[in-house]
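Summary for the steering committee. One of the milestones for this cycle was to obtain a three-dimensional model of the protein with manganese (II) ion bound, which we needed before selecting residues for the alanine scan. The sequence and ligand used are listed below.
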Amino acid sequence: MGRPVDITATAARRRALMRRIGRGAVLIPAGHERNVETDYIQDNDFRQDNTFYYFTELETQDAFLLMTARGPDSIETVLFLAPRVPSQERWTGLRLGPDSVAVRLSGIAKVLPIDSLEARLRVAPEPVYTPHVQSGTDVVRHNDLKPIVDSMRVVKDADEVARLRRAVDISVAGHVAAMRAARPGMYEYQLEAVLEEGFRSNGADRVGYPSIVGSGPNSTTLHYDVNRRRTEDGDLVVIDAAAEWGQYTADVTRTFPINGKFTPRQKAIYDLVLGAQQAAFDSLRPGVTMRQLDGIARRYMQQHSGTLCGQKTCDDREYFNHGLGHPIGMDVHDVGISRPLEPGMVVTLEPGIYLQAEKLGVRIEDDVLVTAKGAEWLSAGAPRTTDAIEKLMSGR
Ligand SMILES: [Mn+2]
């Protein structure tokens, strides 16, 4: 899916190149699809490494954190920072340097210049764990830190929950703004602009992932983020988009009719998805797994499908072709998806039904905090029922 190719121009360029080469071959690899799990695709030049952030919440570049333990009573934490260079700060703005300001801001008592790291590392007790095991830097033997940190990140502490709540609230504001602005004939990117204006004007640092604004046929493509189609009266629009705030991202999806009024058919499918989501929520409590909740949502759909999806029931993998949900955190698909739920985990519930032949896709995705007794909706501020959506949109 792309813009039309000017085949005359491209052929001429290829000819010109090979004339220049004269003799030989040219191999040009295409770009690689970026991976939402590991690459950050947001709009800033710099986003802190999650592991470093997790242990420092500093957004400073090119620093190191060294923690050593020679015994339970001899734990030392050292932050290594590059010296400040005033002439460079004319370009970059103020940077954190190895001085008392860094000590105060980081809460780490020992902050040293980065050139003292190597000497420190040489006398550090082994084994040394690092998040990225790289060859060439093995002053000492390295063990992989990742599984340990991943297991720590599954249950969110109060600070993390507060960050997630804020990211969710900002995301909700964007969704509400987009619903309010929606009119048949708008381009998907115009809805995207309203949505992201809602994020940014409410303090989002960036989007948590590329905003998905899929109307009509595009509502059935799970990760559609081209957002170029012109909406038509009668379309459903799936918006799967969320803000990142303080390194943590929400993940919210809403589906609404571009003209503000669901058709009976759209409403029937929507209500089935909504019921499946509610059934999963009602069964959510510590000890339950995401896989079990997925089964509960599918069973609800199966039992309530009737003939809505034709011969098969709507829970069929042809129509509900993704998992029910996943943890969120610093990664939009955060760690811990297969761990039984515990209080303090924050997960999405996002059933969907996609009927390609009818150009009709519905996904409803909310973020919930697992509590001691069950769960709390975090994203309930974005209208979720057809009545609430129609009411909001009728007030436009
Ligand atoms: Mn999601």
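Key point for the committee: The radius of gyration is 25 Å.
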